[in-house]
Specification:
globular; about 500 residues; mainly alpha
Length: about 500
């Protein structure tokens, strides 16, 4: 229980602080960079964040097998797992960074096909980004080791400290008159510090007798590969979706459109990201329960976690749909709000459904059903890539936002496997989804009615926040009613 509370506190706080830093600095960065250069900056930063999606599933393999072997008493297998994982991170990181650097000019031409000077600048920016990517990529090994031992607090501190430092340093350098290339070198320095911290604390948390090396065990490698290859497919496709969209929009509509799409997407992603971050805590527990064949405990954990996610997702995305336009107007400008409010509302509605899949994802991964999640990701990604190409041409960046719903195409297949593996019926999921959609829409209509009596954007945001805090708080009190009754009599 102490670990759970610490993990929730540090993961939640570690996620919220960079979010607040981003909200405070994005308007300044757009103002001083300009919408065009800011679009390129977003592409570079997204590329640094791409490391979590191209690790061949090694990161989740570390969490799954280390937690599993600890639960079943097979601790002798832990060191070979870690050695193989570290070796793969180093080899893959160097290879991917070298490819990005080699093709940086070609990628620059794709972004700025009619401007030679900007193409060269983009090439240099992407080359520097490749080095920051390499450092951040290798550090993922250490961060996943912490998670395997239920220490989500340490990676939260390291990763989010690096995120905050990157945001703050970028803003300061920009205000001092430095260009994008210097800002990206600042990210490189920050990643060096983060990697050093990851290595230092990892040595402290590993059990006595488990050191770090580069040994290779073919039997354990085959066991890891059978799980990780499907996890890689799922994560890689997710990474393609969340990064390639910017290149597609930029190529079809220009980098200015990337900004009008990416700001709403970033807001919705950040707001829902707290759900993604906290739900990861269930992964090693699902793995342990599956290895012990505790079907009752696994189903109970699934139902409990899913209800919490539904409540949080409804509150977050109702707020984005209801008050998103007022927030954009107050935060950036009325003109920006006019161009991006509908985009934010579309994306927020999508994220309501997407966020509600995360518990099912971790339950299937913990049970070793990575093949199911990979196939679901593949079907959704194919539909999405076809959709975004055509919808962006016809409906601009709002079309790109609408195409996100195509990622949900394989949901019936996905949840039928949850029913088979975890025991939670697909009909129960549909009933809950319908209940929360209807409830959310009623809250939105009520809030919009209230807005007609409010005189400013700030009042709209405050009133919506108070109402939704009451709604979510009431739902949580109902969910925890038995525990509260036992605790307070």
């Amino acid at each position: 229980m102490k670990n759970i509370q610490r993990n929730i506190a540090f993961s939640g706080l570690g996620y919220i602080l960079p979010l607040l830093a981003s909200l405070a600095t994005i308007p300044l960065m757009i103002k001083y960079m300009g919408e065009d250069t800011y679009g390129l900056y977003i592409i570079c930063i997204s590329l640094i964040g791409f490391m979590t999606f191209v690790d061949l599933g090694i990161g989740q393999s570390i969490v799954k097998y280390v937690s599993q072997y600890e639960a079943t008493g097979e601790s002798v297998k832990i060191k070979p797992i870690l050695d193989i994982a570290l070796m793969m991170y180093v080899v893959l990181g160097v290879s991917i960074a070298a490819l990005v650097a080699f093709f940086s000019l070609s990628l620059g031409k794709l972004i700025y096909n009619d401007d030679a000077l900007k193409t060269v600048m983009a090439g240099h920016a992407l080359s520097i980004t490749a080095l920051a990517f390499l450092l951040s990529y290798i550090n993922q090994f250490f961060l996943n080791v912490f998670k395997a031992y239920h220490r989500f607090d340490i990676p939260a501190v390291i990763q989010n400290s690096a995120n905050i430092a990157g945001i703050v340093s970028a803003t300061i350098l920009l205000l001092l008159g430095y260009d994008l290339l210097v800002i990206l070198w600042g990210y490189v320095i920050i990643q060096v510090i983060a990697l050093t911290a990851g290595y230092h604390f990892c040595k402290k948390i590993l059990p006595q007798g488990v050191g770090l090396g580069l040994s290779f065990n073919s039997h354990i490698f085959a066991e890891m590969l059978s799980f990780s290859i499907y996890t890689f497919v799922s994560n890689f496709l997710g990474g393609v979706v969340s990064r390639l969209d910017k290149f597609i929009i930029g190529a079809i509509l220009g980098t200015e459109a990337v900004t009008y799409y990416q700001i709403p997407y970033t807001i919705a992603q950040m707001a829902n990201g707290i759900i993604q971050v906290l739900s990861q805590i269930t992964f090693p527990r699902f793995s342990e329960l599956s290895s012990l064949n505790d079907t009752v405990g696994r189903l109970a954990l699934y139902k409990y976690s899913m209800l919490l996610v539904f409540i949080a997702s409804m509150g977050i995305n109702v707020a984005l749909i209801s008050a998103g336009g007022a927030f954009l107007e107050l935060w950036i400008s009325p003109e920006f709000s006019l161009k991006s409010t509908l985009t934010l509302q579309i994306i927020a509605f999508y994220f309501f459904f997407q966020s509600n899949t995360v518990v099912a994802y971790w339950a299937l991964q913990g049970s070793g059903n990575a093949k199911v999640t990979a196939l679901s990701s593949f079907m959704g990604t194919v539909a999405y890539l076809v959709g975004i190409y055509f919808l962006t041409q016809y409906y601009g960046y709002n079309g790109a936002a609408m195409s996100l719903f195509l990622l949900l195409t394989p949901m019936p297949y996905f949840y039928l496997w949850v029913e088979r593996n975890v025991g939670h019926k697909f009909s129960e999921y549909l009933l809950l989804t319908g209940l929360f959609v209807v409830s959310g829409l009623l809250v939105i209509l009520t809030l919009w009615k209230i807005h007609s009596y409010l005189s400013s954007d700030l009042l709209i945001i405050l009133v919506d926040g108070l109402v939704l805090t009451g709604v979510v708080g009431g739902a949580l009190l109902y969910l925890f009613r038995e525990k509260l009754r036992l605790r307070f009599g």
